[in-house]
Amino acid sequence: MIVGAGSAGCVLANRLSADPKVSVALVEAGGQDDKLEIRMPAGFAKLFKTEYDWNYTTAKQSEMSGRELYWPRGRVIGGSSSLNAQMWVRGCQRDYDQWGIPGWSYDDVLPYFTKAEHRVGSNQGNVYGTSGPLYIAELRSPNVTTAAFLQACEELGFERLDELNGRSNEGYSPTPVTQNRGRRWSAADAYLRPAASRPNLTVITGASVDRVLFDGRRAIGIQYDGGAQVKARAEVILSAGAIGSPHLLMRSGVGAAGELSDAGIEVVHDLPGVGKNLQDHLASAVYIECKQPVTLTKAESIGNLLRYIVLRSGMLTSNVGEAVAFIRTSVEEPAPDIELIFAPVPFKDHGLTPPTGHGITIGVILLQPESRGRIGLNGGDVTIDPGYLTAEADVKRLVAGLKTAKQVLSTAAMKPFAGGPMAPYWAPESDEELAQWVRERGETLYHPVGTCRMGTDDASVVDPSLRVRGVEGLRVVDASIMPTLNRGHTHAPAIMIGEKGADLIRSS
C-alpha cells in the first residue's frame, strides 16, 4: 500500500509491482496528469493554484515581514514532478556524506541515481546513467540571453562544468532537464505508465487518505474519503512528501503525544520528531529589463504554440530556469552555499503575475539553511511553519548571493541585454537594503524536506531502512526522510530515495 503518486511513489509502484507475486495499491489524492500545461515545459506556472495543486500557505513568518508564503505542491499523478521546472540537479558528494548514515553515503546512493537516469545528448565523464526510465536531456531551444549568462559566469572566473551532476557541482552549467523530445517527462511518465497494465498494480485516484489504520502498533491499511478502507497484507508506505507524510502520521496517532492529545487524536506512538526539522530552499531574485525583445515574455503566441505542437521546439520547451551557477560566497564555506538560477523572463510571484515587458531574472537560492521549521496540526488541517531566516547566517548568505547576481549582470557579456531594474525590484545596494528585499519579497524554491528525518538515533522518525520507529509495517519513502537539504534540487534525490527504498523493501 503506497500513499502518494509523486516522485518516490511512482518509482515504488513500478519497482515493487515488477514482482508478479506482490500486489501493489497506489493511492493518490489528485487526478490524471492529462492537461496540456503539464506536458508543455514552460506551462508549469499555469498549474499553480488550480485543481492540480495543494495550494498550501505557510504560517506568518516573523522574519519575512510577517508574510504568509504560497507553497505549491503537486496534487496529481506524478505529484510535484508534474508541476516542477524539470531541473535535474542531484547535489554534490558532501550533501549525502554529511548525513553520516550507513548505506546512505554518496557512493552508496550514486548507483540509484544512475539506475533512474536515461541521459540523452552529451554524457561527458560517464556521469549519468543511460538506460534508466527517466529521460534527462539538454534544452532544445535555449534562449540567447542564457548563453550570455553562461559567458558572464566565465568572465567572473567561475568554473565551467561539462556536466552539472558530478561529485562537485561548484561552477556553472546549462540546466539538465527531465524532458523527452521537448516534453516534460515526469515520474509518472517514467515509472507509472509503463507499469499501469500490470494486473498486480491498482491505482486509486481522487482519494484523500484520512489516516493509517493500526492493529495495536502494526499498520494494517488506510482509510480514505471519510470511511473507505484498503487493507495491506505486507506494509503501508507513505510517499506523500515533506508536508503530507508527517501530517498523515500525526493524524494517525504517530507524533508528539502532547500535540496529538491537544488535537483530540488517540496516541498510537509518541514520536516527537514527526514534523520537526523542516528545511526549504529560500529564494530571492534580481529582476532587470532586457534591452532586446528576445525573452520568454511573448512565449505564448500562436506561432510559438504551433511550433511546440508540431516540432516540439521553441520557447515553450523552456523550463524557465535555463542555467545555473553554484558558488561559495566566502572561502570558509566547504561547498557551494548559494545557487544562481538564470531565467530569460521576469519570473515574479511564482509566474502568477504575467510579465508586462521583456526582462531577465537571476534567482538567488540559499542552499544550506541553518533555520529549521515544523509541520504541525491545526485541527484537521496542516500548519506549515518553515521558520525562514530565524538563523542570522541565512540572511548574510543571501545578501552575499544577491551581490554576486548583480556582478553577473554588470559583465560585458550581459551588457547587450541588461537594462535597468524591473519592478518590483528596486535596486537595493547596502547590506541592510538587500536584507530588507529578501524579507519583503523572498519566496520558496519548492524544496521542503526533513520532516520525517532518517537517522540512527532514537529521536529520528525513520531508521536507515526507512521504517517508522516504534511501530511495525510502516515506512516513509520520500524527501521528508532527508536529514539535511542537498545543494541542488529535490526531485532527483526523491527519485533516488524511491529507487533505494524499493530495494530495501524487497530485501526485507
Note the main attributes of this structure.
single chain, 508 residues, alpha/beta, five-stranded parallel beta sheet
Describe it for me?
There is one protein chain. This protein has helices at 7-17, 36-39, 93-97, 106-116, 144-155, 187-195, 241-251, 257-262, 302-311, 392-409, 431-441, 491-506, and strands at 2-3, 24-27, 56-57, 70-71, 117-119, 134-136, 171-174, 179-180, 183-184, 201-204, 209-215, 218-224, 228-231, 236-238, 254-255, 269-270, 282-290, 323-327, 338-343, 359-366, 374-378, 381-385, 418-421, 443-444, 474-476. The protein is of the alpha/beta class and 508 residues long. Strands 7, 17, 18, 19, 20, 23 and 24 form a seven-stranded antiparallel β-sheet that branches. A five-stranded parallel β-sheet has the order 10-2-1-14-25. Strand 11 and strand 12 (218-224) form a beta hairpin. The longest helix is centred in the C-terminal third of the chain and has 18 residues, at 392-409. It is globular, with a radius of gyration of 22 Å.
> On the 0-100 scale, what is the average pLDDT?
97
Extended strand count:
25
Q: Spans with pLDDT under 50 lasting ≥5 residues?
A: none
Instruction: For the record, give the distance between the C-alpha atoms at the N and C termini, rounded to a whole number.
Output: 16 Å
Radius of gyration of CA atoms, rounded to a whole number: 22 Å
Helix content: 10-25%
Q: Give the biggest sheet.
A: 7 strands, antiparallel
* Content-based structural category: alpha/beta
